[in-house]
UniProtKB/TrEMBL annotation:
Taxonomy of the source species: Bacteria, Bacillati, Bacillota, Clostridia, Lachnospirales
Region named Disordered: 1-43
Composition bias, Basic and acidic residues: 28-43
Subcellular location: Cytoplasm, Nucleoid
Keyword entries, A-Z: Cytoplasm, DNA-binding
Main location: cytoplasm
Family under the similarity heading: Belongs to the YbaB/EbfC family.
Ranges of compositional bias, category Gly residues: 1-13
GO molecular function, one term: DNA binding
Top-level taxon: Bacteria
Quaternary state and interactors: Homodimer.
Function of the molecule: Binds to DNA and alters its conformation. May be involved in regulation of gene expression, nucleoid organization and DNA protection.
Gene Ontology, cellular component aspect: bacterial nucleoid; cytosol
Protein name: Nucleoid-associated protein BEH84_05138
Length: 115
């Protein structure tokens, strides 16, 4: 009885070549999408808009905007908390966009492969 599967005589090398080409194409698409994401900006606000923080898809803070009324020398801690909250929200937005992009590219595998 003939053995099924395996490489010898099973036609796998052709399938393997196709898989490798698909993997390379997917890698190029992921790199292009990652570059595109890195150019995007994500802005979040805290304190009813009194603090605004902008980050890039690279997760770098590029802008912090403060309303005059939130700058109170007697309450620096509140301002610090608002800056942290806005920065964390903007970073979360960037991460969410990255996860969404990876999900599209990997067919919903959660941004990675299980091996």
């Amino acid at each position: 009885m003939a053995k099924r599967g395996g490489f010898p005589g099973g036609g796998m090398p052709g399938n393997m070549n196709n898989l490798m080409k698909q993997a390379q194409r997917m890698q190029r698409q992921m790199e292009e999408s990652q570059k595109e994401l890195e150019t995007k900006e994500f802005t979040a606000k805290a304190g009813g808009g009194a603090v605004e923080v902008t980050v890039t898809g690279k997760k770098e803070i590029t802008k912090v905007k403060l309303s005059e009324e939130v700058v109170d020398p007697d309450d620096i801690e509140m301002l610090e908390d608002l800056v942290v909250a806005a920065a964390n929200e903007a970073l979360r937005m960037a991460e969410e966009a990255n996860t969404e992009m990876m999900g599209k590219m990997t067919g919903g595998l959660g941004g990675g492969f299980p091996f």
